[in-house]
């Protein structure tokens, strides 16, 4: 049995099952995927994901704003919490820091990430963290705000084994790089088919 812990069901490639979410889910179920966590990249998209979850018992959702998503107004802690709680989200995210691409300034990403972590802590929910080329800031914010008993997933993880080891007690790691995966405890690593940058 498999769990798809990171799928963007609201952003299916139209070439895949003609963009039909139901068909895509059926194809995954036929391959023994039994649970799907539909990841939000905007707060505006959460109601649509919640509607999908109501249609499919094996779909649950997160609530959050992707670090590279440009928004007219940054979400407050309260807005993140209200959206997550109001739509039955089981996690906060996708949130985090991505310093590889220009677009959303780093200081904006940092504050957005901090607000998501505060919301997650107050709701007692795990966090889906996208981290790319942002090691020190990611670690600092996790140390300051994340409850290790609740944890989460480091997604789009591009860092080294040292950082992985520091965070392995906190949750699982969805790896982008294949260096030394055998050095990590199996409970701490989740696997995804990936290109140079995974579809994140």
UniProtKB/TrEMBL annotation:
Keyword Metal-binding in record: yes
Q: Name one Pfam family in it.
A: TatD_DNase
Q: Binding residues for a divalent metal cation 2, per the UniProt record?
A: 130, 155
> What does the record give under GO molecular function?
hydrolase activity, acting on ester bonds; metal ion binding
Q: Which Gene3D superfamilies match?
A: Metal-dependent hydrolases
Keyword annotations for this protein, in alphabetical order, are: Hydrolase, Metal-binding
GO CC terms of this entry? cytosol
> Which class of enzymes does this protein belong to?
hydrolase
Binding site residues for a divalent metal cation 1: 6, 8, 94
Output the PROSITE patterns linked to this UniProt entry.
TATD_1, TATD_2
User: In its UniProt entry, what is this protein called?
Assistant: Putative deoxyribonuclease YcfH
Q: Organism, per UniProt?
A: Halomonas elongata
